[in-house]
Amino acid sequence: MNAKETAALVEAQLTEYGLDPADSRIEPFRLGHWAFSAGSAEVQIVIEEGPTEGELILEARSPILVLSGDTGRLFAHVLELNATIVGGAFSVANGMLEVRANRRTDGLSQDELHQLVMDVAALADHYDDELSGKFGMRREADL
Fold this sequence. Notes:
Blueprint: H1 3-16, H2 21-24, E1 33-38, E2 41-49, E3 56-66, H3 72-82, E4 89-93, E5 96-104, H4 110-135
Antiparallel strand pairs: 1-2, 2-3, 3-5, 4-5
């Protein structure tokens, strides 16, 4: 599936959620980048080039905590969670703890896209509050 076809699939899904895809676009748009709110979390959907030439990756991600202070206990905890949660994983990017999931765009269906996005949204909306309270870090939603 090429970038244009994948973007059309994403925009159809956003429309299913009752969102205007044009209002959800993030600039620079590159291959495709959208964001919307899911509970207390922001979910971003991004189309990126994969590691192999011509390969595209669709990723849903949600920054949930601003990293500060001693992060060792938090990192140990989320690594343990990564072994048990389904539908996403914790990662670190740009000074934030994120929930993310991705897959190659080849063969991507509307149902798979919906599941990927909803898994990340549910994990982010749940764990932003739990981890913020447990480790005393600010939620991205509070910025």
